[in-house]
Design brief:
206 residues; alpha/beta; 11 strands
Amino acid sequence: MKHIYHQGTDPASPTLLLLHGTGGTEQDLLPLARRIDESASVLSVRGNVLENGMPRFFRRLAEGVFDEEDLIFRTHELHDFINQAAKAYGFDRDHVVAIGYSNGANIAGSLLFHIPNALRGAILHHPMVPRRGIELPKMPLLPVFIGAGRNDPICTPQETEELAELLTGAGASVHVHWENYGHRLTASEVEAASEWYRSHTKQLPK
């Protein structure tokens, strides 16, 4: 997968896995990573699917309607790539925290839904429920930040609350941060994620 890897200065910090939104690239969230943890290593990945020329991490059938077969395939594809990148770059595969926005947050959520111990934590900006009607892997005390907009037409408050309940039911420690905006990622939401990260990554489950 097309990607960027930056070696961090603090080996104790997690590797930040950056996952862009629809139409983005591996460049998009690099400034966000610096706001979250400037000392961490960064693995920023571009999605392998194109929708009208726009990169995505998996196909969809319509707005808000995921191609579940492709979602599952791409989730495992991303998981395998992270494993390969850990070997190639020498970072701790068991110490990866995802930061995703929109479509990137959805594929990060899908990693949590489908693959046990895929991540040590996640910052999900405006995610949807990846799949319904499945049993989630156990994720005891896994720290998850969800950034949401009360006026988000794509990820409604009900969708956010459902996702938080599903993750909490699997044992995750979920914090939902609400903004009075729509689907866009605001500076105040990024700052809230940064504060959450500083207070929670010290207690990442072993």
